[in-house]
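Example 246.
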Amino acid sequence: MNNIQVQDQQGVRIICFNRPEKRNALNLDMYKRVTEYLIEGEADNGIRAFMFCGKNQCFTSGNDIADFLNNGDLGPTHPAVRFLYCLLELKKPVVAAVSGSAVGIGTTLLLHCDLVYADDSAVFQLPFVNLALVPEAGATLLLPKLIGYQKAAELLLLGESFSAETAKQLNMINDIVEASQLYEFALAKAVRLAQQPPQSLQATRQLMRPHKSRVQHQMHQELEQFSACLHGEEARTKLTKFIQKK
Ligand code: COA
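Predicted structure in complex with coenzyme A:
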């Protein structure tokens, strides 16, 4: 089974998570492949935008929990870490189409996307603290900046799931689209981005993100805390419980 499906269409590289038996949870191989597709797409003049989506009425249930237990060293060569830094460095715009669960990195990666569309079935969750972990992807900086401290605290400290409606009210997504039209709608937006003059598009995007090095620093700090938590007994117990369905 190919867990990452990639397709280039009208200047858009569409990257689709596809691991139905684990609700599209991202394992190490999937991170590696996504990162390769992004790096390749950045270097290809024919690709002018990216789009993330998920198969099987699910975006992604986040990092593979078994991988959390088996790969505690989150150094710069760890595939998930490489993916996050690659995402931060992208010059080309990114669109996301979110259907079903978007858990953990499934929600934090959206903070790096330019346009995010969801359907009614979308359920977002940032359960890092619930799992005795800390958030990643610069979410501890980007989320309070985007939605305000108190709301971010609610989502990050309580870790409860929230709907597409709430995500829209909080400006975390651009719009809610009818489920049957979500993919085509998001793709049409990505194609429009791909048709814009690339130099001004990329320059504008870069100017809108003046705090990149600050985000990079925050990601680094988050990963230090994350690694420490991951080695702790509380996180290991909670993650093992999930795997064993206790
Ligand atoms: N990592 C590894 N396996 C995962 C997974 C993940 N992140 N998310 C789901 N799975 C697996 C389940 O263990 C189960 O496997 P099994 O059939 O071999 O037992 C299968 O995918 C289906 O999951 P299930 O929980 O039964 O599906 P659901 O539709 O009832 O719920 C979710 C879907 C996404 C809400 C739920 O699976 C979930 O909360 N997953 C964990 C998300 C998470 O905590 N991610 C990490 C954030 S830091």
